[in-house]
Give the backbone structure.
Amino acid sequence: ATWSFDVTGASELSLSIAIAAMGDFEASDTFSIRYAFDGGAETELAALAVDEAGSQTYTLADGDQFTLDDPLTLAGETLSNVFETFEFDIAGTGATLDVSLVSNTDGGSEAVAFRDIEIRGVAPGVDNAFDEADTPVHEDARIVDLTARSDILDAPAPSGALFFERVFQYQ
């Protein structure tokens, strides 16, 4: 899956994503989150890895618990069936940011879920200098709900995805 975002003039970009996983994964299972600017070469932002020496106990909504070997990890944390949010800095700039999820699995007894994909950054022309004695003189209005912006996406946006966070300008 690939999502495209208009990030023209934005700086200090990052990606926030919530991930959950459950199952007995194999070393051959791969999951990679990648990005590219303006159709250029992809850069790997994060890769999920299988912990073949580990196990994870998963608690379901009804309270039942299951312990399975070979859980997935990301950034040193073992994933569970409860969504956890991760944030990654995105190096570079451009007009269009493509974010891709590339995976390869061969088992039917495992699941990985992604939601709340957000691209965060500073809108163009916004001064981020901040002094606690300052008072806001401008609140940037470039907050775009991606679920309503199919014109800038190649695929449907996940629920609640936002293009920019609210940014305040100070003098």
